[in-house]
Specification:
By secondary structure, this protein is of the alpha/beta class. The protein contains 6 helices and 10 strands, in the order E-E-H-E-H-E-E-E-E-H-E-E-H-E-H-H. An 8-stranded mixed beta sheet has the order 1-3-2-4-10-7-9-8, with helices on both faces. A two-stranded antiparallel sheet has the order 5-6. Helix 3 crosses helix 6. 48% of the residues are buried.
């Protein structure tokens, strides 16, 4: 496990993040695009395909890597000081993120990905963003996977009382989502892993969050790159955009949805998601393990 301290920031630019009144910002546009480090590339392709109206028509990226040497850095979203969203039952997103990331780390190592590293960042939200990218670079990550749990825009929040305390919820939306940035230095490989991860999540019987394409999301809408599995682009998210290696963000499920929060809090759901991540990683390194989708 890597703990990354950061200094507190006296700047406040978090007001445009929608996830909840306490949701910390996940991104800030970077002034320059990070250069690509050749040793972090796992494959080369022609120009990336446009958003897939029929993803079955897009040609998959073929990658090859040795699991025992392939280093996946698991970024625990947010920090203990800037905890992210607050669930319907008043639990910080950071708690959910850390528990799930730890389980994914265990599963990946058990499946042969011995170089997996857990990245836990300390401090305020803003400085932690660039620090995460720097830490992943210093760790020589072959892939950066950022772990988060979802919420909704403030305008969709409703009030309720839980254990005698004023709380907030929204049962309108649920599901996972997978994000990549088309401005990432290796977008093609980022998308390849995102596609595999989303496919494995779906194979586990999970449904992806569909609200990001809806007008109600306003300027928080995101293009849907694969309508079958739930891969979206989030181009300005700094952890994705500025990473020098392929980078993917997983919103594992909605913790502002009261029913889904209970599922996300269960060891069984963490096992399901960690299994999906491990299966995606194994297929990513060895495409021969891929199981053809049913017609």
């Amino acid at each position: 496990m890597v703990f990354l301290p950061v200094e507190a920031s006296d700047a406040s630019w978090l007001s445009d993040i929608f996830k909840s009144p306490s949701k910390s910002a996940k991104s800030k546009p970077a002034p320059t695009k990070a250069s690509t480090s050749p040793k972090h590339r796992t494959a080369r392709l022609a120009d990336p395909p446009p958003a897939a109206s029929n993803p079955g028509l897009s040609k998959p990226l073929v990658t090859s890597c040795e699991p025992s040497k392939f280093r996946i850095v698991l970024d625990v979203g947010h920090t203990a000081q800037s905890e992210g969203a607050i669930s319907a039952r008043n639990v910080a997103e950071f708690v959910f993120n850390q528990r799930l990331a730890q389980r994914i780390e265990e599963k990946l190592k058990a499946e042969g990905f011995a170089e997996t590293r857990l990245l836990v960042t300390e401090g305020k939200a803003r400085p932690s963003l660039a620090k995460r990218v720097t830490a992943a670079t210093n760790l020589h990550a072959n892939l950066l996977l950022s772990i988060h749990h979802d919420s909704v825009p403030d305008k969709l929040i409703e009030n309720w009382e839980f254990e005698g305390k004023k709380s907030h919820f929204s049962d309108r939306f649920s599901g996972y989502s997978v994000f990549v940035s088309r401005d990432n230095a290796d977008f093609k490989t980022s998308l390849a892993f995102a596609e595999l991860l989303a496919k494995e999540m779906k194979a586990q019987g999970l449904q992806y969050a569909r609200q990001y394409t809806q007008a109600i999301m306003g300027h928080y809408q995101h293009p849907l790159l694969n309508r079958e599995t739930g891969v979206y682009s989030y181009d300005q998210l700094i952890v994705l955009k500025s990473a020098r290696m392929p980078a993917v963000l997983l919103e594992a499920g909605s913790i502002i949805n009261r029913d889904e929060e209970l599922k996300m809090d269960s060891p069984e759901r963490r096992d399901v998601i960690s299994g999906a991540v491990a299966a995606a990683a194994k297929e990513f390194c060895d495409p021969k393990l891929a199981v053809l989708d049913p017609p």
